[in-house]
Amino acid sequence: MVWKPVLPDWNSLSLAQQVAQLVVVRASGHWFDSQIPYPQWEPPAATLRPWIEELGVGGVILLGGSGPELALRTQQLQEWAEVPLLVAADIEEGVGQRFAGATWMPPPLALGAIARHNLPQALDYARRFGRLTAQEAVALGLNWVLAPVADVNNNPLNPVINVRAFGETPDTVAALVAAFIAGTQGQGVLTTAKHFPGHGDTAMDSHLELPQLPQGRDRLEALEWVPFRAAIAAGVSSIMTAHLRVPSLDPQDPATLSPAVLTQILRQDWGFDGIIVTDALMMQAITQHYGAEEAPVRALEAGADVVLMPVNPPKAIAAIVAAVEQGRLSEQRLHQSLERLWRAKLAVCSPVEATTVCHSWDWEASPALQLEQVNPATALPLCRSILQDSLQVHPCPGTITPVNPAGAADAVNLIWVDNLLLAPFLGMQTPAIALPHAWGYHTQWIDGQTPGEPDLRHPTLLQLFIRGNPFRGSAAASQRVQRWLEALIRHQCLRGLVVYGSPYAWEQWRELLPPTVPGVFCYGQMPEAQDLALGVLAQQATLDPGNPPRPSSLDLGQAFTT
Fold first, then answer.
1. Comparing C-alpha atoms, which of 465, 436, 434 is closest to residue 448?
2. What does R_g of the chain's alpha carbons equal in angstroms?
3. pLDDT number for residue 407
């Protein structure tokens, strides 16, 4: 017997409840309050539960925790909700990017690199990437994937988009975005193209300040908007706004708060009738210029349907209710958003068997959480294939000698990372540490918050984990690391270089490498990326960069300890 989930008629809700449905709040994916890493943004249960049970917010965006924790957490949140929630996550690099134990995929720019020499292969990877992300999301209780990024990263200095984009040209990004969306379809999740009208050609981080995009409409049509049009054609569920000012479209307001951008262009000119969701309203690009209560009202006035992460959800709801009661925001505008939201909620609530384990929503049944669908057997091979096919090598003539050929007692494995406290990809057993240790290297790590310089007396393997990071730029780090690299080369200490993350940093630094020093670049930073990159570094240097071998950590350890 099959039961169909039932949403209440939104007309049966009070005005305040209707408004609350248009608000998505941030929360931690961890189970216990004591685990919450960002208490200034992530409320404890005593605060979050009334937001869901009493105010009736329409959704939650989750960050942090493990896969099993997330499964319990999403179930708990849905049990609190009278109206089923949209449960979202920023999982642009797979579910494992945010939730430990699930699959952490390479950043999308790796697919753009593959597309330059093998577009069909890159499109196949993008479809499989999308399918895997959607399947793992649903298995853990997520139903709204805040991906793909549809921005064209044509500015190498972009601190906020960077490797999150699928490429640097509009046609490549458009094709890969459409392929990713195609992979998610039929899996029971919503998708999100972001950040409209295009965040790729900015040099400011909108988490910290309000960028400006000076381009005219013709340029936007020819470049920034190509992937968004492709996403809509591919059936994307929602479009996320960008917190940036585009004077050629609206000389006054940022895109998130602009009727000219959201209503005129997306709705009227393009005919998009999916959900328009704001980027997080707690970002400083908005909070520095607009009040916590004013910004949500102006976003809905501009044409947004969902207000994401307002600074103060109860006050945001009250402000929107007041705007409706005072006639500033029409009931028709509110109802249009509720119609779209209800269509979206029904789309991710397919009929399920009556025997399925269910949440205590006002539903006959709901999808079971299936942990066996997380990190399936196909996931690691897909991740490794993308990493391998996007790997870049600085070849040396002949064969690289063992990185520590004389067994020097003072050889150093020097690791740079932006912030050690925010580096889940590093641990004593991860390849970046374990493999050089097996080769006779002593580990030293320095991060952007710690003073320190390399010791120029010892053979050194330099591993750099560096990429564009929202909230914290990488320019100062890049300058510091370049000084290290130049000093190590000048003193003839450098035995090898591995860069994980930023292809722009790699292109800059590979030019400094002497022909006798091996170097490898990998887009990923996760353990699989470390294993692959270090394996290639320690093998023959005259490799085909597009088809390097797949080393085994065990074999490498044995080779350098005998």
1. 465
2. 24
3. 56
For residue 279, indicate whether it is catalytic.
Answer: yes
Phi and psi, residue 238, nearest 5°? -150, 160
Residues whose CB is less than 8 angstroms from the CB of residue 541 and which lie 6 or more positions away in sequence, other chains included: 393, 395, 396, 397, 398, 399, 400, 518
Q: Which helix (H) or strand (E) holds 536?
A: helix 527-537
The neighbouring-strand residues paired with 26 are 61
The neighbour count for residue 353, using CB atoms within 10 Å, is 11
Residue 447 CB neighbours (<10 A): 17
Indicate if 207 belongs to the active site.
yes
Looking at residue 387, its amino acid is: L
- pTM value surpassing 0.85: yes
Of residues 204, 200, 211, 311, the one with CA closest to residue 255: 211
pLDDT tens track for 229-238: 999 999 999 9
CB 524 within 8 A of CB 387: yes
Q: Which of 30, 195, 199, 207 is catalytic?
A: 207
Catalytic residue among 90, 250, 279, 418: 279
Exposure letters 416-446 (e unless 16+ CB within 10 A, then b)? bbbeeeebebbeeebbbbbbbbbbbbebebb
